[in-house]
Write a structure and sequence with these properties.
single chain; about 475 residues; alpha+beta; eight-stranded antiparallel sheet; five-stranded antiparallel sheet; 17 helices; about 20% strand; binds flavin-adenine dinucleotide
Length: about 475
Amino acid sequence: MTQPDIAPEIIARLKALVGEEGWSQDPERLAPKLVEWRDRWSGTTPLLLLPKTVEEVSAIVRLCAATRTPITPQGGNTGLVGGQIPQGEVLLSLEKMRAVREVNVEDDVIVAEAGVTLAAAHDAALEADRIFPLSLASEGTCTIGGLISTNAGGTAVLRYGTMRALVLGVEAVLPNGEIHHGLKRLRKDNTGYDLKQLLIGAEGTLGVVTAASLKLFPRLIDRTVALAAVASPKAAITLLGRAKDASGGALEAFELMSRQGVDFALKNLPGIREPLAAPSPWTVLIEMAGAEPGATGAAMERLLARALEDGLIQDAAVAQSETQAKDFWALREGQSAAQKPEGAAWKHDVATPVSRIADFIEEASAAVKAFAPGVRVVAFGHVGDGNIHFDVVKPEGREDAPHAAIRDQGARIVHDIAMKMGGSISAEHGLGAMKSQEALRYKAPADVAAMRAIRAALDPNRILNPRVLF
Ligand SMILES: Cc1cc2nc3c(=O)[nH]c(=O)nc-3n(C[C@H](O)[C@H](O)[C@H](O)COP(=O)(O)OP(=O)(O)OC[C@H]3O[C@@H](n4cnc5c(N)ncnc54)[C@H](O)[C@@H]3O)c2cc1C
């Protein structure tokens, strides 16, 4: 796609809408917003806009709609598929909309503006003795607007669902500049199409999210975290079934890590130690949380003791302190960062039905190793909800470029296998600039046509995130 050409006169009018503090063209100020976390995408913009209110966002979008000026919305810039990196569009950052407007314990709701980070939302909920349960490794930087727009998942989906299940209402500016005042806090509202659900996961193509009302949950004081060694993903899935039964609904996270990923963490991350007595081909992290002191500890001990007896697991460790629990999580959350020093990697964020995860890992690992001998597979993630991050790192000692050059063919192999198993090529990161074209191969034509019709109805000139989705 060629870069848009935005006239100086339009730039001047946009600046006037937000005042001196509300825009920047300073290359230093812009630089961190034009590259993403993995250094895979970089971009350009003629203007960074930093509105402070929904009215300012509305004025910006209205002018852009009238002048057919394309916009890329950006939150914390932690997205992993390049959708937030502009390629010549105006960059609309929500970073100045950072107010927590309300926490209401009776309604169990927090109303937060789009630029509030996930960590700040967690803190605000905790101050009211509640939790907002979504949990991701990028929580210090990712924002409510970005989380909604990507329908983010993370480690607690097993119990609480993705962002789609956690949003009660959305305030957003639609592509014509109109404001959708949808900050409801209702658990039941059957009054036709649900606009907020359309905006969730729309990756900034159907509106600019400016605030949201989000569900809060009771704070659970009893928490137990454990690691267990298993011989295979199949054994991990059997253990998952038992953990669901044993926990009586208290199972909060069930994460898998491959030996290769643990080895990279030991080698490349400071402060990481071999987690169990002996190296294991696969490691599972299990977390349970409940309200009754000691209950999850007892359930976890019973689960692990029986699994050891039956030979389902080979070893286990239950965290004896919060620090140890954090160390267990650091190993899991470091799985991505630990690969970085190893060079180029093809990254895949796939989902399959839980019952097919083990087959997927086995078949996809064999297929990529046959296609590119010597590659190092790091499979890890939220297997409790069927989501596996399947990363394929270049062979040791080789250059990055040849591995990067065959990334698309590698992805095709992995995606074909996931889809054959009834899966998805994007479990939680979205399609962005990276996978929108690829997704067209797998989506049913009728579904693509319906999505295009919705977008055309709301944004006939395709001004919002034009490079993203269909
Ligand atoms: C270390 C690390 C771990 C991660 N772990 C997970 C994980 O476990 N689960 C998971 O789901 N994701 C994960 N992610 C991905 C990422 O954090 C999420 O996609 C997150 O939701 C992005 O939020 P953001 O504010 O950074 O959005 P950005 O990256 O700024 O934007 C993401 C997309 O949303 C759009 N957008 C942003 N704000 C708005 C808005 N206000 N209105 C309309 N559109 C908007 C952008 O245009 C873009 O298309 C991880 C990322 C990192 C770096």
